[in-house]
Specification:
Helix content is about 5%, strand content about 55%. The protein has about 190 residues and is mostly beta strands.
């Protein structure tokens, strides 16, 4: 799950709660996959205060904003939070200044990543969350080809713990699309999507 440059992951490490990688021997919960599974869990937003983070480098910039939507007045009420992360590269422009020795026309790589999450947590441990994402790359080799990929999706998940019950009800719904397009030097297009 890396961008076309190979240096940057599409996942912002500041929003991750847990990552598990299974290279084989995983159960039916992952739908009988044949190769490997990467199970990524994101964290909820800050439930106490509005917080943020901003990073900038010669490759790109990243912004994170999180906080409560509803702060409970006592411990018996649910809380609601949000989390928004945006990463953008401007390597195509900044490389003309900082990396001119590589190519004076700039390096042809740009990407944009957006992730958002809304979560409601009940005091008994029940939880409901909605999330959405979009990851995209644009690579423009001046002589050879243009390469673009877009991945977007969204979904929801929930855990319900009925009162005075030893069982819990868990479920999720998700949708995603992945599209790759390529334009050769003669401008003939090719594309593939899942």
């Amino acid at each position: 799950p890396f961008h076309s440059i190979g240096l940057f992951s599409v996942f912002d490490v500041d929003i991750l709660k847990n990552v598990e990688v299974y290279t084989g021997g995983f159960g039916a919960e992952y739908g009988g996959r044949l190769s490997s599974v990467m199970d990524v869990t994101t964290r909820d937003g800050n439930k106490n205060k509005i917080a943020g983070k901003f990073d900038i480098s010669t490759f790109g910039a990243k912004a994170l904003l999180e906080g409560p939507i509803y702060k409970p007045k006592n411990e018996d009420e649910p809380n609601a939070t949000f989390l928004l992360s945006v990463k953008n590269s401007y390597l195509e422009e900044s490389s003309k200044i900082f990396y001119e020795y590589i190519d004076e026309n700039g390096l042809p790589y740009n990407y944009l990543d957006i992730f958002g999450k809304f979560a409601i947590n009940a005091p008994n441990g029940s939880k409901f969350s909605l999330f959405g994402f979009r990851f995209s790359d644009q690579v423009k080799y001046k002589v050879l080809q243009d390469f673009n990929w877009d991945s977007y999706g969204g979904g929801m998940n929930f855990i319900a713990i009925p009162g005075k019950s030893a069982a819990l009800i868990e479920g999720n719904f998700a949708y995603s699309q992945y599209k790759v397009s390529l334009k050769e030097a003669d401008r003939s297009p090719r594309s593939s999507s899942i």
